[in-house]
Amino acid sequence: MANFLPVRFRGRDAFYAGVVPFESGDQLDALRAELRGSYVVAREGHRVVCAPLTDGTNEIGEQEEFVLREHKGLAMRLLREALIREVIAMRYQLRSVRPPDVRVPVLPAGPSRPGRG
Fold it and tell me: Which residue has the higher pLDDT, 95 or 45?
């Protein structure tokens, strides 16, 4: 059974988050443990992004603006955290929290595709 939740971002199309250099997997795990519940912590290449979940949190690292359309993976992590927090606030209990399974349709190649000549 598949679940589907259409999402549209409204308001600002960017957000600010802290950035620190990526040093190791242990560093990433430690940041995630330390900041759990307050930030989404995600690795992006050679850096770690710490995106606050609420206003009024302490700044972590160098602050940088992230445009949603350029950082959709990070935006989806923030959305996922917001949904989990909302479900818990409604007094539901989650048995497990797993990343969603994303399936992308494969389009046929060649001239048979619509709009191709």
Answer: 45
pTM, rounded to two decimals: 0.67
Contacts of 77 (CB under 8 A, 6+ apart): 40, 42, 51
Q: What is the pLDDT of residues 28-56, one digit of tens each?
A: 999 999 999 899 999 999 999 999 988 88
C-alpha distances out from residue 52 to 42, 115, 116, Å: 12, 43, 44
Give the E-state strand segments of 2-114 in sequence order: 14-21, 39-44, 47-52, 62-67
Of residues 111, 7, 112, 117, the one with CA closest to residue 69: 7
List the helix and strand counts (H, then E) for the chain. 2, 4
Residue 61 or residue 1, greater confidence: 61
User: How far is 68 from 77, CA to CA, in rounded Å?
Assistant: 12
Q: How far apart are CA 14 and CA 16, in angstroms?
A: 7
H helices of 1-117, in order, are: 25-35, 72-89
